[in-house]
Structure formats: structure tokens, C-alpha cells
Write a structure and sequence with these properties.
There is one protein chain. The protein contains eight helices and seven strands; from the N terminus they run E-H-E-H-E-H-E-H-E-H-E-H-H-H-E. It is globular, with a radius of gyration of 18 Å. It has helices spanning 19-30, 42-52, 64-78, 101-126, 154-177, 194-205, 212-221, 231-242, and strands at residues 10-14, 34-39, 55-58, 83-86, 136-141, 181-188, 253-256. The chain has a seven-stranded parallel β-sheet with strand order 3-2-1-4-5-6-7, sandwiched between helices. The chain has two domains: 10-189 and 231-248, NAD(P)-binding Rossmann-like Domain (Rossmann fold); 191-228, no CATH class.
Length: 262
């Protein structure tokens, strides 16, 4: 059996209705895992889950009680929980001189507090004596934005830098307390999902680039691999971190950005 085989693993993916999250869910399922997609977009999430033979649970990642219910449903329906992928995220493009505190609070709520709650409930379920109780892995989605200085995404970059630090502290707590849960994160580069395309349009709209195409070209120019990322690039990295191939990888951030953030 390959070390990348996830047969028998039970996985919860937040933000799995579309974009990177959908790609992660599909890749995890293709590797053999039973997948629960969690998303605030109920109709789209149910449709996506049905299309890949997965389950769906409605989840607002900023809601502590909703997390408890979603993890409980996952354990009940899948027969356990081995991997939680904290992928749900929000990006608002704005210059620092135009900072809207409400937008920043929304990003903090979703990107940072949502990830923190995901870790909380993953630990409670996976640790000895928990509803699943056999350890496992947590994979958080940070961003290349945590490692570079790109204009107009200051607040977003700050939240994703926070995800990086949170990942490392969580790995240490899990180890010290004997939870048996590895915690890692990925730093995706720019991928032409709806969120990535929105960023290109909005940065050009702020006058930082002459057009969305110029914005994309600037990212590619800073990327040694010479292209944008693909959903599969990020999804495959998540499968690796979820698998036994990464059994001694813990408290790490894995750049999947073509070298842009080096």
C-alpha cells in the first residue's frame, strides 16, 4: 500500500464547496478518504458533495457551536475523524490608507478565529478520550501572502501570517499534551480560482497595475516556476500532509507557490 493511500481515513474540509477547498476534497477522496465537505454555502456545498460522493454539513467557521455540531455530525456519519482541513477563507482587497475596520474584523473572524476553532474542535475529537480518539492531522491553509509584501492585501496577509504562527503553536500543544495530532499548513501561491481572479481585477482597479492581465503577469514574473498555481498543485500537497508519507512532518509550513515566496 502506498504511503499516500488514505483509505479508511475520515476527513472534514471547510470551504469545500468551491475553489481550492473543492479541489482538496476531491483529491482526498480520490486518495481513498471518506470526505465531509463543510461550507456556509449550503446549496452549492450539497451539490459539490453529491458530485464527488462526499457528505455535506453546513458550517459557519466563526461559530463555536456550529463547529461542535459539524464535528459531531462528521464523527457520526463517517464513523470517526482523522483529518481536518481548515481551508475556509475570506480576502478583501484594500489599500492601508483605505482600511475599513469592519472588513478587517470579518477577515480575522473567518481566517484566523475560524481556523482556531477548527483546531480546537479537531483536538477535542481526535485526542485520547475524544469522540474519535485516535489522533490524526490538521492542515491549515495559510497563503504566500504570509511570506511576501504584496500591495493592497495587508490585512489579509496579517491574518494568514497568524495562521502560520497558530499552526506551530498548535503542533507544540498537541505534542506536549499527548494528543497525537500533527498540525501543518500550506502556503498556496496565486491560483486562478474566483478569489484569485477577483484579486487581479481589484488590484488593477486600485491603479496598482494597468489591467488584471498585467497583475497576473507581475505574479508570474515573481514566480521561478513561471506560471500560476493550479488547484491540483495545492490539493496534492494537502493529500501529502494528510498521509503517512508526512508522518514526521509537524508544525511546518509547506510553500506551494512555485518559489514566489522564497
Amino acid at each position: 500500500m502506498s504511503a499516500f493511500d488514505l483509505t479508511g481515513r475520515r476527513v472534514l474540509v471547510t470551504g469545500g464547496a468551491q475553489g481550492l477547498g473543492e479541489g482538496m476534497a476531491r483529491a482526498l477522496g480520490a486518495a481513498g478518504a471518506a470526505v465531509m465537505i463543510a461550507d456556509v454555502a449550503k446549496d452549492l456545498g450539497e451539490q459539490t458533495a453529491a458530485g464527488m460522493g462526499a457528505r455535506f454539513v453546513a458550517l459557519d467557521v466563526t461559530d463555536d457551536a456550529a463547529w461542535e455540531a459539524a464535528v459531531g455530525q462528521t464523527v457520526d456519519e463517517l464513523g470517526g475523524l482523522d483529518v481536518v482541513v481548515n481551508n475556509a477563507g475570506l480576502e478583501v482587497t484594500q489599500l492601508l490608507v483605505d482600511t475599513d475596520p469592519d472588513d478587517v474584523r470579518r477577515m480575522l473572524e473567518v481566517n484566523l478565529i475560524g481556523t482556531m476553532l477548527g483546531i480546537k474542535h479537531a483536538f477535542r475529537a481526535m485526542r485520547p478520550g475524544g469522540a474519535a480518539g485516535t489522533g490524526g492531522a490538521v492542515i491549515n491553509t495559510s497563503s504566500v501572502a504570509a511570506t511576501i509584501a504584496f500591495p493592497s492585501i495587508g490585512a489579509y496577509s496579517a491574518t494568514k501570517s497568524g495562521v502560520d504562527r497558530l499552526t506551530r503553536v498548535a503542533a507544540m500543544e498537541s505534542g506536549k499534551l499527548g494528543y497525537g495530532v500533527r498540525v501543518n499548513c500550506v502556503y498556496p501561491g496565486l491560483v486562478p480560482t474566483a478569489m484569485g481572479q477577483k484579486l487581479a481585477v481589484e488590484t488593477s482597479g486600485l491603479g496598482l497595475f494597468g489591467s488584471p492581465e498585467e497583475a497576473v503577469g507581475a505574479v508570474i514574473e515573481q514566480t521561478p516556476s513561471g506560471r500560476l498555481g493550479e488547484v491540483a498543485d495545492i490539493a496534492d500537497a494537502v493529500v501529502f500532509l494528510a498521509s503517512d508519507a508526512a508522518r514526521f512532518v509537524n508544525g511546518a509550513g509547506l510553500p506551494v507557490d512555485g518559489g514566489m515566496g522564497m
